Amino acid sequence: MAAHIDQQQLAQELVDQARAEGVQLVGGGGLLTGLTKAVVETALEEEMSDHLGYDKHDPVGRTGGNSRNGTRAKTVLTEIGPVEIEVPRDRDGSFDPQIVRKRQRRLDGIDEIVLSLTARGLTTGEVSAHFAEVYGAKVSKDTISRITEKVVEEMTEWRNRPLDRVYPVMFIDAIVVKVRDGQVVNRPIYVVIGVTINGERDILGRWAGDGSEGAKFWLAVLTEIKNRGVEDVCIAVCDGLTGLPESITTTWPYTQVQACIRHLIRNTFRYASRRDWDALAKDLRPVYTAPNAEMAAVRFDEFADKWVDRYPAIIRLWRNAWSEFIPFLDYHVEIRRIICSTNAIESLNARYRRAVRARGHFPTEQAALKCVYLVTRSLDPTGRGRARWAMRWKPALNAFAITFEGRIVPSTTN
Question: What are the extents of the domains in the chain?
């Protein structure tokens, strides 16, 4: 606490002095620029003292051997703008500073700002313009590209990281991006999301497709996930993509494949006028919350009788999907709640789509994957995009443990 108070007092004294001398807090020649310069130069002098074995102006330095040899000016880009510093030199040129390394022109915080702006969908030109406008610093588009390229290796490591042994639920979703491949075309990026035994969202990986994916593609994706340590998945939630259900059961024979209820409900409203959404939602709820398939059929007949004349396409949509829908009704109500919970997925997809829309289109598939990864990275430094899946997880965990007996074992090593 005393250190905290001292910092406040020091800050107040510096601000008061700056005001008395008419010095701005920020900008060239401002208080923060001067402080940054003083702190960095002091740290560099300490590094030089450690390197030589004696402090500045110590007579020991006059006895021969390596010693200080003046300074050289260098401008580095910091989070408050460009700062000109004096870097100490030694006579034999063996000093290798770590605070500001040789040939380093940016402090580490700048790279994080670039990655953060890129994760929000800004192009290299827009990021360059941002630095010029906000910091008064010139950062070329090539430099920004080099900064963002540094995450490719990190992205590869993330994609190959070990995963949990078992996931109670796994979702397979997709976002659509525009990629220039001769001409601008729509390409899906598939996102696989697991719900951990601790009730957290875990983004397992992302894979780019071309829209014509089949069993071979999906088997390769799921085998990759299995090889990273996933021995079991209780429920896999997905849409009826060609070859996907068969690939899931080939990879994990005991996994139950469930049609995505939230997509079925969402597609319902696409056929309806907005003014009827509330009434439709109210009348549809008894169908997917019914205790069993028989009661759901009764409630759906009531729903169809009311809405068939106005929205026949909605009735056809549900009848066509009925065989894929009813397995959902066999689950415990707590498991249903987890399957239908959309907040953790929707918040993630909203961030992805915001960045994708801001970019318009991408020059390559790799650029699109990099942008999506940077969004994930901005949500969680580990890159997993971890977030709590549901507020009431323990009742669901108990339901999973009973329904899938022997397969769900809570552990800190899962």
Answer: 22-153, 164-403
**Tens digits of per-residue pLDDT, 182-229?**
788 899 999 999 999 988 889 999 999 888 888 999 999 999 999 999
Between CA 263 and CA 385 the distance in angstroms is 22
Within 10 Å of residue 258's Cβ, how many Cβ atoms? 21
Place of tokens 């827009």: 126
Q: Which helix (H) or strand (E) holds 264?
A: helix 261-270
CA distance 33 to 31: 5
For the chain, the average pLDDT equals 81
Distance CA 203, CA 196 (A): 10
Using alpha carbons, select from 103, 46, 32 the residue that is nearest to residue 74.
103
Residue 282 contacts residue 273 (beta carbons within 8 Å): no
202 within 8 A of 137, measured Cβ to Cβ: no
181, two tokens? 């491949």
Cα 168 to Cα 320: distance, rounded to the nearest angstrom? 28
Three-state DSSP state, 337: helix
